[in-house]
């Protein structure tokens, strides 16, 4: 297929020529000849734009070689003129930066005149060659698209219900006949053609509630064309960690990921993450058949994972997993007609009625009968949909085009387009979707061809590249970044990008191929030869490295790249983009290569060297006068060359995660710089950074480090967050008022007087007064949305915080470490405040919002949703007012370290409450409530016969109470607190708490630790949930943890007597309850949902029965040695898979000597634990290995601190399936078992902190071993292992060997220098 002619035409030529004319006329007002030429060029622009637009539309026409050559000449002339114009602009910036008057000489003017002459000449030839297109009728709809909002459309999926149900049933029922799934992990291929919805189906499965519940660890990895085991393993680690963070609701931080130099290191970390866990892994878009060797390497970390884990593989190859015994594949075809029409109709019409857009319905007198049956638009849409082959992606793309112009003529024109009849490797629907983009969007879209398949786009970075390339037309009203954001959002809205997470996006493979095909004459990828199947585009399109303007380097082979450059296979002269996607650990050759590139590629606008492992940036970087975007992120550079400071066009500099120790002194000359991506330390050492007045972001500014605070007033373009630190170093009289008042684009301001976090400042009255003056000078603009004041020691707030009409847009406020502040400013008057955090305000004793008495104020904190107060040691009460509504929207309340706080306003709509180290005696007394005004549902109040008026919190879902030493009860009686929607309750370190109220049936998690309870609470059998009365529903409690309750003696009262608990309780933990007795008739047998049971240090508790649902049990050694049994019919259960036994934490050395194993237990041993595959033993003193020889299914044995567990008697041979053996902290163990070699399945052996072990067994180690790790043992053991004459040859077959933290062998390759030399000598 030929390159698409004129793909850049209207957008690029219009932008460059318009800019050339405007700037030329501005710079050369006295050059009449040049001025005349520029005006003539401007007159030619409409005609040339019309011809190129017509050429682009005529894709079915076969252009001659001469016509293609003319187009290339025109493009080259435009690019050359752009470079000449950029040179003039560079000189202007240089004069401005260095403050000297030097006008460009006649040579420069002559060059510009020649460039204009060249363009004029080429345009004449072009007009002659393409004159046949004159008068071509313009196609309707090729106009600028209407602006769209930035909000992403809600994703909807049509159809695939059957496939989802099929896959979930396979996962739930054990994968049918697939033994690998039932015994370890299974592989489920999802196959189908490109764009048919394989990834969407995998996403539906991945995010299904059943999968989230049954697979605690989930990983999503995009594979694409290279099945690189190390890189895929690293991606799995990152994905698993991200999922874990999201599950724990931790704030995701963009931190540099660990880069694994070896596959073994990555596999070891992944194995630790997966050990004992059931996981789901999605390998999305696999392009080649997976061979058994690579698959074996990839799956090594899965061996210790829980059974019935699964790997989903999506691919276009029907037999992608044929060599690895997969489950029956799920083959996707196009959607059926009904589902496809629903999808297409949704994309094209949205929520509109098609009849409303039909010309047939616009007749006077009513709607025609034909419209009533089926509108004309629907008829046309149905015909178009029938040509798309059931492809969901095609429906979304073309439907998006149609939705923007619901005119019958427009739709009919698309239906009759010649593109439907062209035999093309790219779907006509994709071409049509591209065709109806406006000029700027086309150019921005095609630029994505520079990135590899499956690349994760960051919106901000891509937009910055568009700006650097000049794709965004200048505007006096908007920043180019804002225009670019709008372009990007429109491409998302049109389905050219697919959102992934947090401003990260992907491009579907077919859409990426479309961009590559359109830009094939400008974009060139230098890559290693791909293995397996090639991209369809690669088979049909020959990239021309000689005409390329944008090059992507995807190889680690520097020699191959150097050879191509030396042979002139790549023309560097006209390059505008170079993107590197390799890692070059040998930095010197790479820097030499860059130096040679910089000597030639002087037109570069975008240079991405991120994560290439480089240590130095060549000084020849100063040749790149046109450079606007430079990314050095994640490299090892410690300094930047002084020559960088001459790149006056530079707009973006990214040095994040670089260990920079110094920066060039003249960085402030980069006056065009708009974005510096750097850490706090790096940005703080930029000399006179405030001269960079075009900066859009400056996250950190050190006020006391050679920078004048007043100079911030000049940086009015700053936007986003700003952190001003070291304000305590500002001198008297240095600060002037109104420094930030004009910074209208700032959204977040953090003012800090103690950047080092040294705690409370010791200050005198003079410093207090100075702080007050400085804060008064830093009044922000009214547009500010977030304000944080840290370590301020003034006694009063600034005047601008006391004004009623100021900061009406603030949504978040943080007052931290303001130790002398005696009163709060009137924060309750802020109409949009949603989050308020107050911490370390030691002088504050009382909060009373008297300002609410104003007639104009009806509510206090009208929109506040979260309130957090911490470390207010003298605060005694926080009171509201009687004539105003207080906290009407507050959902989350956090009170910490306020030991004297006894009263707080009653807030009935709370959802989450956390009280820690607070002086409350009871909740009723703490919440300062007018109880006479509290109303409860009739069913609750009528059923309560208790004394006192109940306190209602009808919306609370979670409550956490900790370190409240005076808390006795929640109320005067068990029914005085009404919590109908409580889901989680945690009570810790409240030793005086003796009574809990009856809890609602909605409760799913209950944790009680270190409390004075004598009996467990009850679950209400009757109550209100969600406004609906619930009778006899029982409890939904699934997690119960009771610990350190010395007064608790019985389980027969309260929770365990209720039916609901028995059906739902899945996790039960009882710890350190010394008086708790076994007084349940049938033990835990009635807990039919119980999966995890922990009984630690409860010496009087013995369980006679448990249910067969139990999978994991953790008990203390004394629980076993004192005669605990699980009934005669089921001594232990066949269903248990994981057993953990720990030593008795309460037993002293004398008591340990008294521990004795009952004879009856010795007879029974653990022979009934036939399904156990994981056994963990920690600090046991009596248990020995011979008790466990019946565990024939054991895969993991972890021995930690068990001094007497291993004996010299050969007993390991019983564990024929053992794969992982870890022996740690056994300080009295003199030697390893001699029968280790009998473990024929052992793959990993870890010996750690066993100082008496001096040698490995004489009988050698098992031949199956793949990993050996030794640490903290006798030095003689290391000497023995490294003895090249004796023992090392016996263990050299093990692929991975690590001794005392030093990797001796990795991947079967020897790494130890001494051994390499010795073995080489011996061999010689």
UniProtKB/TrEMBL annotation:
Residues 451-515 form the Disease resistance protein winged helix domain. SMART domains: LRR_TYP (SM00369). The keyword Coiled coil applies. Keywords: ATP-binding, Coiled coil, Leucine-rich repeat, Nucleotide-binding, Plant defense, Repeat. It comes from the Eukaryota. Residues 31-58 form a coiled coil. GO terms for molecular function: ADP binding; ATP binding. Residues 710-841 form the R13L1/DRL21-like LRR repeat region domain. Residues 183-350 form the NB-ARC domain. SUPFAM superfamilies: L domain-like (SSF52058), P-loop containing nucleoside triphosphate hydrolases (SSF52540), RNI-like (SSF52047). InterPro entries: Apaf_helical, Leu-rich_rpt, Leu-rich_rpt_4, Leu-rich_rpt_typical-subtyp, LRR_dom_sf, LRR_R13L1-DRL21, NB-ARC, P-loop_NTPase. GO terms for biological process: defense response to bacterium; innate immune response-activating signaling pathway; plant-type hypersensitive response. Residues 28-99 form the Disease resistance N-terminal domain. PANTHER family: DISEASE RESISTANCE PROTEIN RGA3, PLANT BROAD-SPECTRUM MILDEW RESISTANCE PROTEIN RPW8. Belongs to the disease resistance NB-LRR family. This is Disease resistance protein RGA3. It comes from Ananas comosus. The gene is LOC109712784.
